[in-house]
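Quick one from the shared queue. A colleague (R.T.) flagged Alanine dehydrogenase as missing a structural entry in our internal table.

Convert sequence to structure tokens.
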Amino acid sequence: MRIGVPKEIKVHEYRVGMTPASVAELTLAGHEVFVETGAGGGIDFGDDAYTAVGAKILPTPQEVFAASDMIVKVKEPQLHEIAWLEPRHTLFTYLHLAADKPQAEALMKSGATCIAYETVTNAHGRLPLLQPMSEVAGRMAVQVGAHYLEKEQGGRGILLGGVPGVAPAKVSIFGGGVSGFNAAQMAVGLGADVTIYDVSSTRLAELDALFQNRIKTVYASGAAVARAVENSHLIIGCVLIPGAAAPKLVTREMLKTMKRGSVLVDVAIDQGGCFETSHATTHSDPVYTVEGVIHYCVANMPGAVARTSTFALNNATLPFIVKLAKFGAEGAMRADPHLRNGLNVAAGFITYKAVADDLALAYRAWE
């Protein structure tokens, strides 16, 4: 198969769809790999590193798309990139379509087969291609939250862990999944007063056992969420409904009760965000303030630690890329129902029901 790796073009996005080591796996298996010049330059993977393992360097993204049968990316394609997709193409990347109807409609129009990292599953019912970036984002959320709590950043002027005689910051984490767990690990390590909110009593029990009473766990009722907003210095939104838009847990009215200079970090912003006042920001302009509360809603948080993120993502995606290259999209999905769960768009239809329902678009089951 011919596989293309274009350069990512979102603001301050330095990750790359395939490392040279990943490319080597494919070229050794007899596949052709086309890499856009400079695709890995942001994390010190020069063109020569790719040519050394058998890749061919092409000067423009248009040429990469034209030469390839499968496109491997990190972030969702922008509308002008979608214009280069054809029905013969397989696109393998993060899509997050439930929060982006224009992208969904453009992908439908392209006729391409579009497999989303974030809905591929495994035998345990988890999301193995979302997990590494969720780990990164959860850990980063605490770092950026602590930074923006500093007074010179416009924050309340609170040290996350406090000092002897001065109470630590109160950190509330909405969602006890992968991002929430990793955020809690970082916040606990810094000495914060941490509470995790979730609607799964089973998950809350697991978290309670894992942290051995170093955190508090609370069932995420509406009243509990409202109290958390009123009392917290840092809230991290990590709620995930696979493929679907994130629920809006915090309203603007609730925000008015929050302490001035407190911080919200919306890890779920790729799926539309879990705060009513959230809108996507970029690494070049990451925060804004509503009702005196700082909002950090960067839609590609892991891009800030692009080298770590690229290696972590490639570790997870490479086995699926190899399978797609060997058997083709249809053959690979027939053989692997977990990969098939990643299919979001094919033959002009949305093939993931949660996305179709959220966007009110035509749905057709893969079968």
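DSSP finds 13 helices and 15 strands in the chain.
The CA atoms of residues 220 and 242 lie 19 Å apart.
Added to the table.
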